[in-house]
Design a protein that fits this description.
Strand content: 15-25%
Shape: elongated
Radius of gyration: 21 Å
Helix content: 25-40%
Order of helices and strands: HHEEEEEEEHEEH
Number of domains: 2
Number of strands: 9
Structural class: alpha+beta
Largest sheet: 5 strands, mixed
Number of helices: 4
């Protein structure tokens, strides 16, 4: 079962310890999560799509498609190509002029939201919020905020997405 936006926010919040100093609000996390969305949803009939919009077919075929020519989708779902390189696999949709064009962008992940990348970015935001803080000692109190920044950076590294070149 795919994560809803709210459950993805809750998961990122837990993974990045959002309630601990420096805190992140659910709005902060939601904005980061929206920046790391893998696709916008399921293809919908008679819908205006802009260049860059990403969808998955109504009948899943394991692929994500990106709009390369803006337009309005048709009343019936197009025949989606199933395999191949994103450079060569595309399909046209709708009756607008020019026709809406979808490019195969590769395998679809199960989850719409990239929780791992969002978590990494949240840890980096937390690190940046304490980067200007200094260590302080007053009597028996010894606050080492530089260690907090280092901890946040180390946690971000743990959630760094694996990239295959």
């Amino acid at each position: 079962m795919s994560l809803t936006r709210a459950s993805a926010i809750a998961r990122v919040s837990m993974y990045c310890d959002a309630q601990s100093y420096p805190q992140l609000s659910t709005t902060d996390i939601g904005q980061v999560l929206d920046d790391t969305v893998r696709f916008g949803g399921i293809w919908t009939a008679s819908t205006a799509y802009a260049v860059g919009d990403r969808i998955v077919p109504v009948t899943p075929n394991g692929r994500v498609y990106e709009c390369r020519t803006a337009g309005t989708s048709g009343t019936t779902e197009p025949g989606w190509p199933r395999y191949g390189s994103y450079i060569y696999w595309w399909t046209e949709d709708g009756t607008s002029d020019p026709r809406l064009r979808w490019i195969d962008m590769g395998p679809a992940n199960v989850e719409q939201y990239d929780v791992r990348t969002a978590t990494q970015r949240c840890w980096l935001i937390k690190a940046s919020r304490v980067a200007g803080e200094i260590d302080a000692k007053d009597g028996t109190s010894d606050v080492k905020l530089s260690q907090l920044r280092d901890h946040c950076v180390k946690m971000a590294e743990r959630y760094r997405p694996m990239v295959i070149a």
